[in-house]
């Protein structure tokens, strides 16, 4: 009886099998119909893609992240993005900017704990026509030059929240 119970615990659930398959397809650059997934499952899939062991190698990382983000943004244009963590956010942002027009619906962007984030990574924000809120935390290399791009394009930014970003604070 105990042996049967331990075998049952090892059997993957239907969702974990589907999640694994969808993650592989997204990383391979296939156009997966994720727009039909409920929001909670879609977000779980996105987290699984971004934490995938395939993303650990520097050479394969850019194309896999770019492919996954391209499909994601095309199928589910985001109004909010929350990017957290020190490694890989810059790569994710470069991939997002390549996608283009679906990001025009972006209203809020939160980026946290990203010591390598530079102004050049945020300059394309000027092309997001509806960006209203930008929250930055733990981005010590930012100097604020990306704000010039936002001002020139007339971005409708209403709120800018910065913490632990010493280059953005006037002495």
Describe this structure in words.
- The chain is of the alpha/beta class.
- 45% of the residues lie in helices and 12% in strands.
- The protein is built from seven helices and four strands, in the order ααααβαβαβαβ.
- The protein has helices spanning 2-10, 14-27, 39-50, 58-75, 89-99, 119-122, 145-153; strands at residues 80-84, 108-112, 133-137, 159-163.
- It has a four-stranded parallel sheet with strand order 1-2-3-4, with no helix packed on it.
- Helix 7 links the parallel strand 3 and strand 4.
- Helix 2 (14-27) packs across helix 3 (39-50), helix 2 (14-27) crosses helix 4 (58-75) and helix 4 packs across helix 5.
- The longest helix is centred in the middle third of the chain and has 18 residues, at 58-75.
- The radius of gyration is 19 Å and the shape is globular.
- The N and C termini lie far apart (69 Å).
- Residues 4-8 and 55-62 have low confidence and may be disordered.
User: SS-based structural class?
Assistant: alpha/beta
Low-confidence stretches: 4-8, 55-62
The number of helices is 7
Taken as a percent bin, the fraction of beta residues is 5-15%
Cα shape: globular
Overall pLDDT level: 79
What letter string, H or E per element, gives the SSE order? HHHHEHEHEHE
Regarding quaternary structure, how should these chains be classified? single chain
Range of helix content: 40-55%
List the helices and strands and how they pair.
Elements: H1 2-10, H2 14-27, H3 39-50, H4 58-75, E1 80-84, H5 89-99, E2 108-112, H6 119-122, E3 133-137, H7 145-153, E4 159-163
Parallel strand pairs: 1-2, 2-3, 3-4
């Amino acid at each position: 009886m105990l042996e049967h119970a331990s075998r049952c615990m090892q059997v993957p659930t239907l969702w974990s099998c589907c999640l694994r398959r969808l993650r592989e397809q997204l990383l391979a650059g296939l156009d997966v119909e994720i727009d039909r997934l409920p929001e909670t499952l879609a977000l779980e899939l996105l987290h699984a893609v971004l934490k995938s062991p395939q993303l650990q190698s520097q050479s394969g990382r850019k194309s896999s992240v770019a492919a996954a983000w391209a499909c994601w943004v095309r199928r589910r244009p985001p109004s909010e993005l929350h990017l957290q963590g020190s490694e890989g956010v810059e790569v994710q942002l470069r991939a997002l900017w390549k996608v283009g027009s679906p990001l025009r619906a972006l209203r809020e962007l939160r980026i946290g704990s990203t010591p390598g984030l530079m102004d050049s990574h945020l300059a394309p924000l000027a092309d997001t026509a509806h960006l209203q809120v930008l929250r930055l935390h733990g981005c010590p290399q930012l100097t604020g030059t990306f704000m010039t791009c936002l001002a020139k394009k007339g971005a409708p930014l209403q709120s800018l929240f910065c913490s632990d970003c010493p280059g953005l604070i006037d002495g």
